[in-house]
Amino acid sequence: MIFFFVMAALVVTVCCLYNHNLTAVDKKDKAKIEVVIPSGASVKQIGNILKEKDLIHNANFFYFYCKVYEVGNMKATTYELSKSMSLKEIIDSLVEGNSYNPDEISITFQEGINMRKVASIIAKNTNNSEDDVMSLLKDDAYLTEIIDKYWFLTDAIKNDDIYYSLEGYLAPNTYKFKNRNVTVKEIFNKMLDQQLKVLDGYKEQFQKSSYDVHQLFTLASIVELEGKDDKARQGIAAVFYNRLNNKMQLGSDATTYYASRVDMNERDLRESEINEVNAYNTRPAAMAGKLPVGPIANVSESSIKAVLNPTKDSSIFYFVADKDGNIYFTKTYQEHLQKIEYLKDKGVWYEW
Questions:
Q1: What is the pLDDT of residues 52-85, one digit of tens each?
Q2: Which ranges of the chain have pLDDT less than 50?
Q3: CA spacing 20 to 30 A to 169: which of 63, 78, 112, 312?
Q4: Rounded distance, CA 344 to CA 337, Å?
Q5: Residues 281 and 302 in one domain
């Protein structure tokens, strides 16, 4: 009986130890730990590396487990593991291997930024300068190459009045690149590839529109800066279409700032800048019924959908936003002024 109980206790102890060594060191600790498995490392050496990083309970058990289950061909590379991973999860990761690259960079281009900001972001995150970005935008051979490749790009981007040829066409998103040595061309091509994925679902609607692709992108870029959500942008797109159809100026502050190469919120514009006749400024009478020469910011899918599917209301010609970004639409200029006074009385009028 004594022998039986001793053996039973031993079996239970062994089972408990076995199960314990299979579990994560700390299920709650999901912090990533970089682990380098060198080329030619043995199972014992790998176990010791994992134990030193406190990723497994016992290096000898790791060796025992790998031998019993004939685990082999663990890849030599750099991993990001965590203490919340079980022994099997860690081993599976080592067997599968990965393409982890410690030099990889991630760059985010937000919706609504202009090319000057794009150039600044690229210069900050890579080994390119802002001048490198601007040079490629003027490279005629490159522009011809991408016009031939992407259906949504046309010769309109080569217009001499356009500040930056690819303004508006680079898809906002977060992109990963091998390292800081990535070229501007590689960055642009990846952003254009992403734009292609977005636009392919709308190609038929673009083709059916009475406006060409460049005009639609131009309008979408203005809508992007004037509205903050899908519904507001659809209404704003309707206002602009109604103004164009009635030979009125779009009157967008966003275009006036862009025309002067001044970012909104940077400073107030001078009267001469507000009234300047420019291929982008939609305030002067000379721009009645006209769109700017090109886009003024990169465009979200929301704004693309808005210009392809605007609110069906031909009676709205004005809109105003309060300080919270809410948009109010009116039919006449008198109603527009009354709405502004109403917002001021409510204390929600937006002031610079």
A1: 999 999 999 999 899 988 887 899 888 999 999 9
A2: none
A3: 312
A4: 11
A5: yes
